[in-house]
Amino acid sequence: MSARLEAQFAFLNEADRLKSVMRATTLCDGSRRENSGEHSWHLALYALVLADQAAPGVDISRVIRMLLIHDLVEIDVGDVPIHSADGKAHSSTSVQEAESRAADRIFGLLPDDLAQDLRALWDEFEAAETPDAVFAKSLDRVQPVIANLQSGGGTWIEYNVTAEQLESRVGVKIAKGAPRLWDWVREKTRGYFR
User: Fold this and answer.
1) Domain HD: where (predicted)?
2) For the chain, what is the domain count?
């Protein structure tokens, strides 16, 4: 039992470092950039509150679990904004490989059963093929949109984001997992991009 607890706390202590990873997205009030720990917490709350936007059969408790761990790899890799390098940085092979190595290291701190469980959940989120992961990805894309709207454009200004880029990089993911939510968000963004 002692060795198991040591491993569990090693992981939890390592996860604390996520609070030091600054993201491109600001808080809704625009006062500062959010950190990845705050982002993960906020997404879990999004899942809880917006559960009615999920497709039938989506397990919100699994979605919350995914969202709580989805960005742990940023401890090693950092935040890679979706609009950086004109949208290419986020999907580059080198970033994906670095994130996979980070997942190996970070989840590898856990006892084997938990490591396998959480790594499988992270892999499922990354693949975005199951209904749970598709909904989780849609929330991961919508939260920064809302923050940018609330902060008067936030990082859209910094990255010169256009309505077309928002639609192609973000909208398609939101629409796939939460189509009614994307309809609402699209209407809100039209007001911004006019």
Assistant:
1) 15-182
2) 1
pLDDT exceeds 70 at position 58? yes
3, exposed or middle or buried, with CB in 10 Å at 0-12, 13-18, 19+?
Answer: exposed
Q: How many CB atoms neighbour CB 136 within 10 A?
A: 30
Distance CA(141)–CA(154), nearest Å, equals 15
Provide the token pair at 47.
Answer: 């899942």
Range of the domain at 8: 2-193
Res 93: pLDDT = 86
> Do 101 and 67 meet the contact criterion of CB atoms below 8 Å apart?
no
- CA dist., res. 8 & res. 4, Å (int): 6
Token readout for 172 is 């398609």
How would you classify residue 152: left for phi > 0, otherwise alpha for psi between -120 and 50, otherwise beta?
left
Which residue in the block uniquely carries the two structure tokens 């995914």?
66
Determine the average pLDDT of the residues in 7-17: 98
Residues in the chain: 194
